[in-house]
Write the structure tokens for this entry.
Amino acid sequence: MNLYPLVRPWLFCLEAEQAHHFSLNTIDQAFRLGILPGIIGKVPALPTQFCGLNLPNPVGLAAGLDKDGKYIDALASLGFGFIEIGTVTPLAQPGNPLPRMFRLPQAQGIINRMGFNNDGVDACVERVRASQFYQSGGVIGLNIGKNANTPIENASQDYVTCLQKVYGVASYVTINISSPNTKNLRQLQGGQDLIDLLQTITDEREKLSQQFGKRIPIFLKIAPDLDHENIDAIAQALLQFKIDALIATNTTLSRAGVENMAHANEAGGLSGKPVKNLSTKTIQSFADVLQGRIPMIGVGGIMTGYDALEKHHAGASLVQLYSGLIYKGPQLIKDAIVAFEAI
């Protein structure tokens, strides 16, 4: 039984970030009490391989929902095939001032300007180690970024620091250069800045792979706000540095389709249904350039199983959910898996 439609109106009476924390704590309590499986029901199995990772299904949790790894086991129990934690930074930081998250229910959208609020990479790594999901071999990606007060010209060192710290526990590592909520971060998506960052990351990965005796996949997460020139340049950099996969996409700065709605003029990245077509178009554009040489994970505006299937048809092998969960609840995970079963 899908109870979420009954609960959502009450949650939407709460301020958005307050509802976010309340929901996570409630899911965690249900997990600890052992009642979550009964509420969620059976989740279809659809074994999938991706970049050497063995996944129970192709539907994952996008970064941002559990920034610090506090709810790994509870979220994994919802039926995700893999979990992505973060974005984490070298040092703890509070993020941007409140309020910083806004719902646009009419459009099934969310605007956030969280600003990489997190407890720091060390705290996150310890929580990952302590989780049952990690200890049982579950696939956990660590999404890494730079601290807000780190000058953009020194950003590479923040990514290296995080990579060094998460390498021992991460199933894969995502380089987040596409959040619109950290000043100048998106500058790293192009030109020499991108080349220098990926060179530094791949050099460090080579050292760490020898140190740990394993090669951890590196993924790059990009924005949907890219023109054809940007896409071509990023694709060539992915190939040059043998980045394992692309995650497309992060939130958008566009307000197309939500103009004049309440909160539409708030600063931050827009996610949910309004970004769906832009995200899918970006996936398709990269698929046209990459021609299957680098696999992709599709994320952005997945609200139905058909939306997940649409991402696959555009070129994504896996999908990730976040904003869709806010509007549709955990049933969306099953719906997406069932859609992939039909392929």
